[in-house]
Structure formats: C-alpha cells, structure tokens
Design a protein that fits this description.
The protein is α/β, with parallel strands linked by helices. The chain contains 13 helices and eleven strands.
Length: 335
C-alpha cells in the first residue's frame, strides 16, 4: 500500500484505535530492528510503519506478525506497512552513512509526518536517523526536531527538545549547534519557551505543580559575571514569568547542581541551555529509558534517545528497549 492509499481520519469504533505512525530511521542502523522488536512487544496497539514493505513484512512475519491493511481505525495488534522506499541489501548491510540510505530515511520520515499532520495517525514515533547520510543525499539536515518544525510551518525555535525519563526530565534551550553558536543563541525568549513547554509536559505527566530549575550557560552559572554573562537571559525570562501558579521555578543554577538535585528527586525537571548539558546527564541517568519528545508541534512526537548504532546493527545486537519507551510515551501522551 502506498502513502496515498491511506484514508482520511475517522473516529475509533468497536474497540479499534487510530494507529501510531512509525518512522524507522536509517535502514543501515539499528532503527528497523528496534522498531520491529518494539512493535512485537506492544501488540495491544496499532501501527502504521513507513519504509520498505517487502523488507518489513519479512521481519514482522519472522516475529509471527502478519501485516494488515491500513485504515483510520485499526484493531489492537494490527500493523500496516506503508511502502515508500526501497531498501536494497547493499544499503542495509553498509552499516555506515550512504546517500541512498539518506534518501530512504528522509522519504519515510516525511511520509510519516504527513500521516500524523493529516490526522490519519494519532502520534509519531521515530527511530534514529543519520544526519550525515541525509546530507549526503543532497538535503541539508541538522536533526529531527528542526525538520519537524519546518514541516509544521514553525520556526526552528518554536519547538522544544525534551528528554523525559524516570529520573530526569529536561528541556533544551538550544539544540544542534556548535558550543560557540549555541551560547550566542541563548536568549530570554528561548529560555521562556523551553520553560513553558517543560511545565506543560510535566502537567501532562501528572505533576500539577512541578519543581523546575533553570541552569546557567557558564561554569557556576557565571559566578556573578566572572565567567560570562549569558545568565542574564535566564534572569530576564524568570522575571517575566514568575511567579507561576502552576510551577515552582528557580534559576539560574549551576548545571551540575541542578542535575544532582534532579537525580535525587529533589526537583522534577531541569531547563538546560546547551545540548550536551542535557544529553550527558540524561544518558547517564536514564540510558535506554529516556524518550526524546518534541514539544510545541500540533501533534505528539517521540523518539529513542540513542543514535543509529551502525556497530550494533552490524553485530545484530540491537536492543529495542529505547523504542519501546518511545512508543509507551507516545501512548501516554495521546491517551
């Protein structure tokens, strides 16, 4: 079945559900294996899976799953394949970035985005892409988050990258940029946007008045200006926002102190200024259980917190736990 064959939205009926859309990422990485493994572990839901229907059909049948026809409301356990790209053996077995692999993963991603944006699926779950491979295909690409914002007609800084895990919930003020450029990109408007989005996410997760700390950019949150003054943007944002009736907010706080307090359970979430401030802490505390969530889109999008892992794919050592966590978060946020 092609993407154009999918029918428009209809209300679920008779125990049926609107499916989740699944984009598997780079076929040469672990995405297809972790996606199929996660789908097999969550047979009480329904899925639209975008990619090579022949390849995916074989993988699903090896798990005892027979693909079905796509529809607006599907029976729990149903998996429909949307055939949008061809995965030849050389591409899949390359286990490295290739232009053909870049084209295949971007075509599948965009088709999956369209299915959610049009209402044919209730949320989007994405596997790990190779930014390098997509760029090799001739399309400038810096990340899922930015592509999703662009396809939704939003500015790149209108959405927030969140990592939501059992021990740490963190929002990023800047995402895929060099450290030099990211520090310069910190602004009070971006701090405020990230903070508001994290508060909204924590409310959705059942925390009516979350305790959140906002980190500084520099060591020791600037040490009163000795190590830089980017923290002024945090101060301006908090002055505009505070007090909030639905959250307890403090900042700017040295990043290491905030992450330690989050790990101990003393606070519920952290707003981090830089990509690696957030991801190092998240992967240390919640490896395999954290979920990358894009907040601010007109639909729910979740993803694994790991990369394409070409080495694990080559060794047939892919583990689906991260994709299972991403599916579970999408189920929770679309319930």
């Amino acid at each position: 079945m092609s993407a154009s064959d999918l029918e428009a939205d209809a209300r679920p009926r008779d125990g049926r559900v609107k499916p989740l859309a699944i984009s598997l990422g780079d076929p040469a990485g672990v995405g297809p294996a972790v996606g199929v493994g996660a789908i097999a572990a969550r047979r009480d839901d329904a899925f639209l899976v975008f990619g090579d229907a022949t390849w995916l059909g074989r993988a699903l049948r090896d798990r005892g799953i027979e693909p079905t026809e796509a529809s607006a409301a599907m029976a729990p356990g149903a998996v429909a394949l949307v055939d949008v790209a061809r995965w030849d053996e050389d591409m899949v077995r390359a286990h490295r970035p290739t232009a053909v692999g870049g084209r295949a993963q971007l075509i599948a991603l965009d088709a999956a985005i369209d299915s959610v944006a049009s209402g044919r699926a209730r949320g989007l779950v994405t596997g790990p892409v190779s930014k390098e491979a997509i760029c090799l295909s001739g399309v400038p690409f810096v990340g899922h988050t930015e592509r999703l914002a662009e396809r939704a007609g939003l500015a790149p800084d209108a959405v927030t990258m969140l990592f939501l895990g059992p021990r740490l919930r963190v929002a990023l003020v800047t995402t895929h940029a060099s450290v030099r450029d990211a520090a310069a990109a910190v602004s009070s408007a971006r701090v405020e946007r990230s903070l508001r989005h994290l508060v909204e996410a924590l409310h959705r997760l059942g925390l009516p008045r979350p305790r959140i700390e906002v980190t500084g950019v520099n060591p020791h949150a600037g040490e009163g200006g000795l190590f830089g003054d980017e923290e002024r943007h945090v101060e301006v944002a908090l002055a505009r926002l505070l007090p909030l009736a639905n959250a307890e907010i403090a900042g700017p706080i040295p990043a290491e102190a905030s992450f330690r307090r989050a790990a101990s359970g003393a606070i519920d979430g952290v707003v981090a200024m830089l990509h690696d401030q957030a991801t190092i802490a998240s992967k240390l505390l919640d490896w395999g259980a954290a979920v990358n969530v894009t907040w601010g889109l007109p639909y729910v999008r979740t993803s694994v917190d790991h990369g394409v892992a070409y080495d694990a794919a080559a060794a047939d050592a892919a583990e689906p736990e991260g994709m299972i966590a991403a599916i579970d978060m999408a189920r929770l946020l679309t319930a």
